[in-house]
DNA sequence: CTGAAAGCGCTTACAG
DNA sequence: CTGAAAGCGCTTACAG
């Protein structure tokens, strides 16, 4: 017999109401909630059988299964995930690592997409937000010994070589979503930046723009992204189409800490663009939000969009259609679904048909692009 | 000794690469990841001491603590949450129940706010999306026996009496966020609808509007919300300010399944409003998104906003400032932080200073409200 | 198809 | 301050 004196009160919780009682005395064990053992006793079978019946694994007679199920329902029984996990070695959890905030256009969509497919498969989706380079380092330091999830989805994070090494040695599958490179991931889902930029430049070219530019977002050195990939792709696309380097301008992202506000960064960028000797007549901007902010700033200054300057964004987020922004549309919910499907397969030990998926964006023509007017 | 034959391979996972090896052979146990026992052995202390040292509980000499910490770092050791949880009875997890999708303005903000405070306290935030009334029923059926989290935050869900009863008997704390009523929750955080509507009606009144109306969103009977509270508050506020019932119009939300698209629902509502004999000169709309859609629809039809009809929204979401919408601003991130702080306190067994918080909204005047022009 | 038993990796009184 | 030992609630070979 277990020493009762040593029995701990599990999940003790004092109600804020004054009576201070514990809830529900339905279970004959007294305080608390039914366990598998209670179900077994009530159904007159062994714990093994209850486990098999409830999880649908192994051979159990239909009659037994039904009875066990009934008893379990009556007792409001739910398996303890901690106990199952400890015994089986599977946590039934997938961690999604994002930067900055859960409440961004891309990250919230990523959560939703991954949740849809993982929850159907019985997995929990656990978000992990990494805000600084240190956070990220700490996460990767502990990743190899982490037994708290069965797989990881890493969103929009630029990895260094150490981190790639960690992923390569990892005992659990890792999938990169919006990964800039294949890294050490078992699978990735990402946008085809080269193709996107080619679409954008082609549009500008066919509209007759001779001087074009790419505008990077203000950069945070402590952040983990890099715009260089996209601006590089822009340059390549422009050269392919016959623009020479004098006709291509890159407006680099300044360190964001130099500015008091997002608006200040926008103004500074707009000023740089306008002060340019041979100002471009069309710009591709790294993201919609920055493109929209620039559009407002240009108009405030008295520059017409698109008559004086055409603008193409990237993302097609919530605001873009309202702003009538021409942009490259991507679907982060769908991308996250794909990423989650990859982790699922990998967690089951199945091989990936296409480990690294590269998705096309669609160019959506709206009202911020037009034929250039002579200045 | 343990029978090795019976040792299970835990967390087995076949790499997609062809070599099929398991990762990392750093640990001297061979395959796999360090456990507390490994750390104890390497540090030359007992498992109890490792546990105490790593968690900072109980008396451990500084010297021992430092050594254990070192060894743990070297071994990339992380506690198994499943094992800790099973042993301690605390899951260190909080479930956030939302409806429909994680990717909505309110829900994504709620995740972010709750995450901020819970992750600081060492808790995981686990989302649970409830899409249908059946999903909700199933969740509440199993809630009493659920040992898989230490607390719940329920977002924007209208409870029935059974569900209130379940919450009242629950052994873990439950907090309602954007709750319409106190329900059976241990704590709630919600908007002061009455005050909000009073602010809105006061503005319209002082601008000189004599005929005003409230527009409900299209409703989903399978969904779990109700607009009646807000429209009721509107009516009360209008009466308070001396409007008689003939001057107040309520445009009820039709069943959403009657429409092929959101846009159809918007058109139908706009038509109802315009066809009204004594059309109101100002409208409060249940949410910003619907207000903005109506604004576009009115303008499409040739009705000027605000000259012919003033519009006030509710939420102040991402699109509102761009649409120049006058609206009632609420801050779901801050609300979610408060909700999470309440669960935290309750999980620690501490009483809540203010169990039920009612937050004011701020009326933001933008360009969709004006003095009515004579028709 | 079913049961007895070992084991998963921790935490926590208890006893020094 | 530290260790030995019981126990948390399951799963899963193994043996019928």
From TrEMBL, chains A, B:
Write the record's keywords in alphabetical order, separated by commas.
Answer: DNA-binding, Transcription, Transcription regulation
What CDD domains does its record include? HTH_LacI (cd01392), PBP1_LacI_sugar_binding-like (cd06267)
Among the Pfam families in the record, one is: LacI
GO molecular function ontology, one term from the record: transcription cis-regulatory region binding
Q: Does the keyword Cell membrane apply?
A: no
Q: Enumerate the PROSITE patterns for this protein.
A: HTH_LACI_1 (PS00356), HTH_LACI_2 (PS50932)
Specify the HTH lacI-type domain's residue ranges: 34-88
The protein's name is LacI family transcriptional regulator
């Amino acid at each position: 017999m277990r020493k009762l004196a040593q029995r701990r009160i599990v999940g003790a919780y004092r109600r804020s109401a004054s009576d201070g009682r514990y809830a529900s005395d339905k279970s004959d064990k007294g305080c608390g909630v039914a366990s598998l053992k209670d179900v077994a006793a009530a159904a007159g079978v062994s714990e093994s059988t209850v486990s098999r019946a409830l999880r649908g694994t192994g051979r159990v007679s239909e009659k037994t299964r039904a009875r066990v199920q009934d008893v379990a329902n009556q007792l409001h029984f739910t398996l303890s995930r901690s106990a199952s996990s400890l015994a089986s070695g599977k946590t039934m959890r997938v961690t999604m690592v994002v930067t900055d905030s859960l409440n961004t256009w891309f990250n919230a969509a990523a959560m939703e997409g991954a949740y849809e497919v993982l929850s159907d498969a019985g997995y929990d989706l656990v978000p992990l937000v990494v805000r600084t380079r240190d956070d990220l380092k700490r996460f990767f330091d502990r990743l190899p010994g982490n037994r708290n999830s069965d797989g990881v989805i890493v969103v929009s994070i630029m990895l260094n070589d150490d981190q790639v090494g960690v992923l390569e040695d990892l005992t659990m599958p890792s999938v990169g979503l919006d990964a800039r490179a294949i890294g050490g991931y078992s699978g990735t889902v990402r946008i085809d930046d080269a193709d996107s930029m080619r679409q954008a430049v082609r549009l500008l070219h066919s509209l007759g723009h001779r001087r074009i530019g790419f505008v990077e977002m203000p950069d945070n050195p402590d952040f983990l992204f890099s715009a260089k990939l996209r601006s590089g792709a822009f340059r390549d696309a422009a050269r392919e189409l016959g623009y020479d380097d004098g006709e291509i301008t890159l407006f680099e992202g300044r360190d964001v800490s130099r500015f008091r506000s997002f608006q200040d960064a926008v103004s500074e960028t707009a000023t740089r663009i306008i002060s340019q000797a041979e100002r471009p007549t069309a710009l591709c901007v790294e993201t919609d939000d920055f493109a929209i902010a620039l559009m407002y700033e240009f108009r405030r200054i008295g520059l017409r969009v698109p008559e004086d300057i055409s603008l193409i964004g990237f993302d097609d987020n919530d605001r873009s259609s309202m702003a009538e922004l021409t942009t490259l549309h991507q679907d982060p919910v769908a991308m996250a679904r794909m990423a989650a499907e990859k982790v699922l397969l990998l967690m089951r030990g199945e091989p990936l048909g296409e480990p690294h998926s590269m998705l096309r964006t669609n160019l959506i023509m709206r009202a911020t692009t037009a034929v250039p007017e002579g200045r």
